[in-house]
Amino acid sequence: MADFYDMVRTEAYLIWEAEGRPDGQHDRHWLAALERVRERTAPKAGAPVIPLPLKRVVLSARARRRPQAAAPLRASA
Q1: Is 70 exceeded by the pLDDT of residue 76?
Q2: Residue-wise DSSP of the chain
Q3: How many folded domains does the chain comprise?
Q4: Which domain holds residue 39?
Q5: 51 inside domain
Q6: Which residues contact 73 (CB under 8 A, 6 or more apart)?
Q7: What pLDDT is recorded for position 44?
Q8: Is 2 domain-assigned?
């Protein structure tokens, strides 16, 4: 499935095209497209909710260490 905002972008473009490519209406087109895509992608009433697995982040030993203070800058001569 395409990224959500890619779908909104495509929908906004189609609205813009259908209205004859008017200038200065991009905010209205984006909001209308956002609403249309949300309606299409919203879960249906009564559909089972399937939880997504949590992503575990494993840090290496280097990433777990506290960051060291940066060395002071030296004035160049």
Answers
A1: no
A2: ---HHHHHHHHHHHHHHHTT--TT-HHHHHHHHHHHHHHHHSPPTTPPP-PPPPPP----HHHHSPPPPPPPPPPP-
A3: 1
A4: 1-43
A5: no
A6: none
A7: 75
A8: yes
Other C-beta atoms closer than 10 Å to the C-beta of 19 total: 12
Matching residue, tokens 């949590």: 54
Q: Report pLDDT digits (tens) over 19-59.
A: 999 999 999 999 999 999 998 888 777 777 666 666 555 55
For residue 77, is pLDDT > 60? no
pTM of the model as a whole: 0.54
Q: What is the rounded CA–CA span in Å between residue 7 and residue 36?
A: 10
Query: How far is 2 from 14, CA to CA, in rounded Å?
Result: 16
